Amino acid sequence: MKNMKSLKYVILCFLAFTIMGCKSQKNTVESSTKTIPTNIKWSDRMALTLIKAHPESYKIDDAKEPKWDYVHGLVLTSFEELYKTRKNEIYKNYIQSYVDIFVQADGTIKTYQIEKYNIDMVVAGRLLFNVYQNSKEEKYLKAMQLLRKQIEEQPRTASGGFWHKKIYPNQMWLDGLYMGEPFYAEYTKTFEDGKNFDDIAKQFELIHSHATDPKTGLLYHAWDESKAIPWANKETGTSPNFWSRSIGWYVMALVDVLDYFPKNHPKQKQLVGYLNKTADALVKFQDQSGLWYQVTDQGNREGNYLEASGSSMFAYAFAKGANRGYLPTKYKAIANKAFSGIIKDLVKIGPDGEVIITQACAVAGLGGKPYRDGSYEYYVNERKKDNDPKATGPFILAALELNK
């Protein structure tokens, strides 16, 4: 193993990666066909499953060609947290192999198109902070500056909220809070002395005030300030239903952004308050299995199902929130119940010990072509995918926070 520094590392590599080749190449982490051990943490088992299935990290979402994308940002952020805990170079190399496909010598990012102003494309920039800190290579700094430029120029609603994409005018989606704000928060703390924390808090304020249902306390998937798109309620501008994964994006965004907000910042308590209110609302809809349904408030209505990505996201946000003191300690137990439900009801083990998470919604959105109306029938009929990255990444993060 390249740059081996300690006997402890050798032991970890031997025990935890008996299934893996520990050699790293420019864009590939080699794997063998041996069985994944069952006596290691769930976080490692899931990560090893992904590396075994996708030695080239850009293929995490079964991509045929390299693409700078949010799912890679999510999953590889979980690998980054795993590396901080385990210090196994294979995780670090897996992240590096992705970054180095895309970040060019001049700081441009292959396949990334700033002119689309798609906030989904910002989140993978979170991977660049540690890569730059460790290497001091200017190309990584320039790539971060490019993504920061997108945030600066991102179209906004009249009240100052980021459009989700240029093609979705005046629309804020819960998804977008995770896609943009953690990167924005880390960037402004690292390079701008925190000068834009108020702007970050504003994004949450707008979503909380306009997308929260006063009856349930849950947040609708999206809000159109103009109320012009057909899916928008003509009085409130909100989309018609509560989608668990979208609320999952929102609570994950809160716990991750709070990593960078100083405790004495005037908006910090406000963000913690949003997290508590949303968590309190979600607990009321937690199934006895510990899981949450695809359409959060509709229980076992025909077609609805217990969904993996939203449940994993809630488990992570609740566990991290409790661990950091943002949420009451009872949420650690709630997160444990959710994680146990995932293992019991949604996880299968493959022939070589692979961890396979079932019942994950592959994708859901609003508007676009073909048009997505946000109806109940729409959400429950979108396709499902085993080991979808929107489930595997939060599963790793939850397992880490829970030390499972």
TrEMBL record:
Q: Does the keyword Chloroplast apply?
A: no
InterPro entries named among the record's database cross-references: 6-hairpin_glycosidase_sf (IPR008928), 6hp_glycosidase-like_sf (IPR012341), Glyco_hydro_88 (IPR010905), PolySaccharide_Degr_Enz (IPR052043)
**Biological process terms in GO annotation:** carbohydrate metabolic process
Q: Keyword Hydrolase: yes or no?
A: yes
Question: What are the record keywords, sorted?
Answer: Hydrolase, Signal
What are the recorded GO MF terms, alphabetically?
A: hydrolase activity
For this protein, the record's Pfam families field holds: Glyco_hydro_88
Q: Which domain of life is it from?
A: Bacteria
Would you indicate the residue range of the signal peptide? Answer: 1-24
**Name of this chain's protein:** Glycosyl hydrolase family 88
- The organism named in the record is Flavobacterium hiemivividum
